[in-house]
User: What shape does this take?
Amino acid sequence: MAFIYYSEKIMMSEPIFYANPASINSTHIQLNKTESHHAVKVLRLPVGAIVIAIDGNGVGYRCEISKISRDKLVELKIHSVVRNFGETSALVTLAAGLSAGSKFDEIIEKCTELGVKRFVPLLTEKGKVKIEDPKRIKSKLTRYNKVALAAVKQSRRSYIPEITAPTNFHDFISEIDSESDYLCFHPSQQAKLIHGIKLNEPVKRLTIIIGPESGFSENEINLVIKQKIPTISLGKRILRAENAAPVICGIIMNLLAEFR
Assistant: This one.
């Protein structure tokens, strides 16, 4: 079957659903029980309705509901395909410090909507968060991934961000990716103000590092400086971690011309 590749602009109004890649073949897509329920029971979409399906790997499909089974499971017929549907040009990673009582779910939600493709929860000296129980880690990652998927659908993206297990800051900073640019946000007199940021174009990979609620320790900042990563300040105001992350990501996405 030969697909027609539509632009994203004509795919911005149809309802959007997630489909596991295993449920997609060359002509049809089978929605799971949860997505089918939303289509049939919540949105009350009939056979023949035009919808968008995303595979979580960066592909969007413009489809038609071709069948609703007795069990209310929805089958879609593929009309066209859009690669990199709703995605940014650059691969942006957000490495953010965990804090006791902080709302990391909100960071994932808002920054996914802004286009972040990878999240690294950081265990820092001042964050006072320790996650050693494998079951607890698995539980948190399951919740984080549910939040990310909902945010992907809300913002009409097609790539579900990767969310790593919580990582020790020292381990993270010692394994710098040579193919990525880095920016570390930390309020200090030595840090450059954010309006003075200049990114090397074209930016293909960018990692944003943000501390926990109480910031980075002096030792951690020295490690950042040792890696020759520039430190950036938002200026006079100090924001809560769950507010700083989306503000910073929004500013960076604007600098990357992602809002045009």
User: Anything to note?
Assistant: Helices lie at 33-42, 104-114, 134-154, 169-174, 218-226, 241-255. Confidence is low (pLDDT under 50) at residues 1-5. The two ends are 34 Å apart (CA to CA). Residues 140 and 165 are 9 Å apart (CA to CA).
